[in-house]
Design brief:
The complex is a heterodimer of chains A (about 375) and B (about 260). Chain A contains 15 helices and no strands. Chain A is mainly alpha-helical and about 375 residues long. Chain A has a single domain, classed as ABC transporter involved in vitamin B12 uptake, BtuC (Orthogonal Bundle), CATH 1.10.3470.10. The relative contact order of chain A is 0.14. Chain B has one domain: Rossmann fold, CATH 3.40.50. In chain B, strand 4 and strand 5 form a beta hairpin. In chain B, helix 4 runs antiparallel to helix 5. Classes of the chains: A mainly alpha (about 375), B alpha/beta (about 260). The interface between A and B is large, with 45 and 49 residues.
């Protein structure tokens, strides 16, 4: 047995680039730069193509008042309005929603210790759909502006209501376990979907049904500056909060018993995380409908890059998710001329093959290196 | 640190799994807990390390009231080597071991140089120096168990509980793990399956049967063929091993 001992003089084991500190910082720096450049590039795409140089100059002028060249040149067209009033809030919305969905997906996967979890696992999607269906088809949808806030309100209420039901159901009787959570989520999903379908079936309102369908596919078309503060502040606060929780999140992946021996009793943390993610997801769903696959796939993708340690995983995946959604939104509004595709279609079309590739690819070990 | 368990009772719904168990582990003593499957030894250990709440009774680590203290406070003193398990999410070996520092760190604190050297030393102690970057899930059972042990070493506990850590391991790794633990020179309470290994490593043994302590004492005093026959329901003869001079047990046909 003694012969198996490695002599202490052995050179320090080498760590891969991404697992070293400088390598990780490089990844974050690159992602940050890409995110900033993406915002600038994304506002140039659309029904009206605007040259990159002009959009960057407009953004720079509006943000810092620095003029490069003659800014009055630019204001002469309608470019300034398109970029500043329509596209920029939308791109920023995409950025925050992408970051938020990825964050919630990562947290959910840790909280239920299940790689299949996504932000909608707590029945949020079906709850929100039920709320939205209710609002659209039972009459709150036809009240103009009030109808719009009504839709968002009911979607939010449905999302939060469904997830609370799931949480209660999962902790009823005995201790809340991750398996019970996942099953409770499925049950509530089925129930809400049944109710929503019931409303749709008897609604005899073709226009309304179309709105419901469109809403469940997700869209950022309704983005505007006044919707941005709620989303951006809540997502930013959640990111900040969870960045400070990396030790608990890591311990969660080891399971309840091991976490206790490391000094963390998971029960209360898990419940708190669930409620926070449910609220954030509810806010996001209420403003842009359901955008699938982002919260499921981006965390896995980034785990393959930086590992499962949440200290690295969270910042990297949040940035990655933001960039991903900015570009999928660009595709959604440009791929078919003069038509806006629901972004949920694009995320699924891109996400599903990516996920297939990860499943087939040898060596993807949900975060480790093989 | 010493461990004092007094009149501990654990029950699930109607069944009393652990019935009025008291035991004591002195500082730097290696104490074994043996007994047949289902005798309640795992439940007893789990209620000592706070995974299960006992119905009544006290657990003290020196002055620390384990049942009333926060998990974090207990984890700073008490390390637990359980059985390794598969993870749904993978970590590198080094990340796994670094998690042993969790109870010593504030929420906002990141790992510093000292933590790094503690982790490196723990990896060295279990002969996994070159494994730091490997994926935990890709390791063999023996290697995984050593990673778990390294994580507990990084926790720098003053008392250690081993909850059947050597199950399913080759004899080489069983010996390796017990040797490493024995050399730590801290109080240890270990549930073990193999009676000869228990006799070889433990200073003192508690034998459990049906939730109660059936016998306790020095291994050579209590591991008699009568006791083994009664508690484990097997016929055997004990003898002095001619090579090592230690206690040997020869199992005869099951009755």
């Amino acid at each position: 047995m003694q012969t198996a001992l490695v002599p202490p003089s052995e050179p320090k084991p080498k760590q891969s680039m991404i697992h070293s500190r400088s390598g990780f910082m490089a990844i974050i720096a690159v992602l940050l730069i890409i995110a900033v450049l993406s915002v600038g590039a994304a506002v140039s795409f659309g029904q009206v193509a605007i040259p990159f140089s002009q959009s960057y100059r407009i953004l720079l002028y509006h943000i810092t008042s620095i003029q490069i060249g003659d800014i009055h040149d630019l204001s002469s067209g309608s470019f300034v309005d398109i970029i500043w009033k329509i596209r920029l809030p939308r791109v920023l919305m995409a950025m925050f929603i992408g970051a938020g969905l990825t964050l919630c997906g990562t947290i959910m996967q840790a909280a239920v210790q299940n790689p299949l979890a996504d932000p909608y696992i707590l029945g949020i999607s079906s709850g929100a759909s039920l709320g939205a269906t209710f609002a659209i088809l039972i009459g709150f949808g036809s009240m103009g502006l009030l109808g719009q806030t009504g839709l968002a309100f009911w979607a939010f209420a449905g999302a939060v209501g469904a997830s609370l039901l799931v949480l209660i159901l999962a902790s009823a009787g005995s201790k809340m376990t991750s398996v019970k959570l996942v099953l409770a989520g499925m049950v509530i999903n089925a129930l809400c979907t049944a109710f929503a379908n019931f409303i749709v079936y008897f609604a005899n309102n073709a226009e309304g049904i179309k709105t419901v369908t469109f809403w469940t596919m997700g869209s950022l078309a309704a983005s505007s500056w006044d919707k941005l503060p709620l989303i951006s502040i809540s997502v930013a606060l959640a990111i900040f909060f969870f960045l400070l929780q990396f030790r608990v999140l890591n311990a969660m992946l080891l399971g309840d018993e091991t976490a206790v021996t490391l000094g963390i009793h998971l029960g209360a943390y898990r419940r708190a995380y669930m409620i926070i993610t449910a609220l954030i997801t509810g806010v996001m769903v209420a403003s842009c409908g359901m955008i699938g696959f982002v919260g499921l796939i981006i965390p896995h993708l980034v785990r393959g890059l930086v590992g499962s340690d949440h200290r690295r995983l969270l910042p990297a995946s949040v940035l990655f998710g933001a960039i991903f959604l900015i570009w999928t939104d660009v595709i959604a509004r440009t791929i078919v001329p003069n038509v806006e595709l629901p972004i949920g279609i694009i995320t699924a079309l891109i996400g599903a093959p990516m996920f297939m590739y990860m499943l087939i690819k040898k060596g993807y070990a949900f975060g480790g290196q093989s | 640190m010493n461990l004092n368990v007094e009149h501990l009772c654990v029950s699930f719904s109607e069944a009393n799994i652990v019935r009025d168990v008291s035991l004591r582990v002195n500082n730097k003593q290696f104490v074994g807990l043996i007994g047949p499957n289902g005798c309640g030894k795992s439940t007893l250990l789990k209620s000592i390390y706070k995974v299960i709440k006992p119905r009544q009774g006290d657990v003290y680590l020196s002055e620390l009231d384990v049942i009333k203290s926060s998990p974090r406070k207990v984890a700073q003193k008490l390390g637990v080597v359980g059985q390794f398990n598969e993870l749904s999410f993978d970590f590198t070996v080094r990340e796994m071991v670094a998690m042993g520092r969790t109870p010593h760190k504030g929420m906002l604190e990141t790992d510093n140089q000292e933590d790094d050297s503690i982790v490196t030393a723990a990896l060295h102690k279990v002969n996994l120096d070159t494994y730091a970057g490997r994926s935990y899930n890709s390791l063999s059972g023996g290697e995984k168990q050593r990673v778990i042990l390294a994580r507990v070493l990084a926790q720098q506990p003053e008392f250690m509980i081993l909850d059947e850590p050597t199950n399913h391991l080759d004899i080489k790794y069983q010996l390796q793990i017990l040797n490493i633990v024995k050399r730590l020179d801290i109080g240890i309470l270990a549930a073990l399956h193999d009676l000869t290994l228990a006799a070889q490593y433990c200073d003192y043994l508690y034998v459990m049967k049906e939730g109660q302590v059936a016998a306790s004492g020095k291994p050579e005093d209590i591991l008699t063929k009568e006791l083994i026959g009664e508690v484990f329901d097997v016929a055997c003869e004990t003898y002095r091993n001619p090579v090592t001079g230690a206690l040997g047990i020869a199992y005869l046909e099951t009755r």
